[in-house]
Design brief:
Layout (H helix, E strand, L loop, with lengths): L1 H8 L1 H21 L4 H11 L7 H16 L14 H36 L7 H35 L8 H10 L1 H20 L4 H41 L11
Helix pairs in contact: 1-2, 2-9, 3-9, 4-5, 4-6, 4-9, 5-6, 6-7, 6-8, 6-9, 7-9, 8-9
C-alpha cells in the first residue's frame, strides 16, 4: 500500500528504481554468456593495439545493436576470427562517430581548460602544472560524463538508419539525449566508475574498459529506444498543436 501511494505521488521515483534494475540486467546480460570472460580477455588488450582496436570497437557496436533491437532476448555476440572482418568495418564506423561526438568535444573542452590555465596564473605554480594537477582532474570527468552517452545516441542513430549522416544530426541527437538524460547519465557514471575501480585495484585498464563498454551499451540501447520514442511523440504533439492553431482540423472527423 505504501509503495502504491509513492507511485501515485511520484511515478518518476519508481521509474528511477526500475532503471537501476535495468542496469542490473545489463550486467547479467553480459555475464550470462558462459564465455564472456574469454571475450573480455581477448577484446581488452586489442583496444590498445593499432588498427586491431577497431575489432573490439565493432564488437561493442554489435552489442549495442542487439541490446537496442531486442533487450529481453539479448545474447552476447560471438568473438570468433571469422567475425573480425565485419567487426573491423563497424569499428571504423564507430571510430568516425566517436571522433565527431566524443573525441572532438573532449579535445575542445581540454583546449578551453588550457586557455583558462593561460589566463589565470597562481604564484608558485607553473601554468602547465596548474593545468595538469588542478584543472584537468576536474575537467576531464565532466567532458566524458557528457560525451560518452551522446556518442552512444549517435551510434544508435546510425543503427536506426544504416547511414552515417543521422549520427551527426546534432540537433535531433541532443533532443534524444536530453529526453533520456538521467538514464544516460547513470550509464556514463557506471562506465567511468568501473574504469576507476580497475585502476584503483591495479587491474589492467584494458579489461575494465572493454567490459564496461559492453555493459554500457547493453544499458544505452533500450534507453535510447525510450528517449527516441518520447521525442517523436513530443514532435507529433507539437505538429498537431500547430495544425490546430493554423486552423487545420485535428482529425478527419473533427469538422461537422
Amino acid at each position: 500500500m505504501h509503495q502504491a501511494l509513492i507511485l501515485g505521488k511520484n511515478d518518476s521515483v519508481m521509474e528511477n528504481n526500475e532503471r537501476f534494475g535495468d542496469l542490473k540486467q545489463a550486467f547479467r546480460a553480459v555475464t550470462r554468456d558462459g564465455s564472456w570472460w574469454w571475450k573480455v580477455l581477448m577484446g581488452g588488450p586489442m583496444l590498445f593495439i593499432p588498427l586491431a582496436f577497431l575489432i573490439p570497437m565493432g564488437f561493442t557496436m554489435e552489442v549495442l545493436r542487439r541490446a537496442k533491437k531486442n533487450p529481453e532476448k539479448f545474447v552476447l555476440p560471438g568473438f570468433g576470427f571469422p567475425l573480425w572482418g565485419r567487426y573491423f568495418k563497424e569499428g571504423a564506423v564507430k571510430l568516425l562517430i566517436a571522433f565527431g561526438t566524443l573525441l572532438a568535444p573532449v579535445l575542445a573542452w581540454m583546449g578551453f581548460t588550457w586557455a583558462v590555465a593561460l589566463i589565470f596564473h597562481f604564484p608558485g605554480c607553473e601554468r602547465w602544472q596548474f593545468f595538469l594537477k588542478v584543472l584537468l582532474p576536474f575537467a576531464s570527468p565532466v567532458a566524458f560524463f557528457l560525451t560518452i552517452p551522446f556518442c552512444a545516441v549517435s551510434c544508435c542513430r546510425y543503427l536506426d538508419t544504416g547511414r552515417i549522416g543521422p549520427a551527426f544530426d546534432y540537433v535531433t541527437n541532443i533532443k534524444i539525449y536530453r529526453a533520456g538524460f538521467l538514464d544516460f547519465s547513470i550509464g556514463a557514471v557506471v562506465i567511468m566508475g568501473m574504469n576507476a575501480i580497475a585502476q584503483t585495484w591495479l587491474l589492467p585498464l584494458m579489461w575494465g574498459l572493454f567490459f564496461s563498454l559492453c555493459v554500457g551499451d547493453c544499458w544505452f540501447g533500450p534507453i535510447y529506444n525510450e528517449a527516441a520514442r518520447q521525442v517523436r511523440r513530443e514532435e507529433a504533439e507539437a505538429a498537431a498543436a500547430n495544425g490546430v492553431e493554423d486552423g487545420e482540423p485535428s482529425s478527419p472527423g473533427s469538422e461537422s
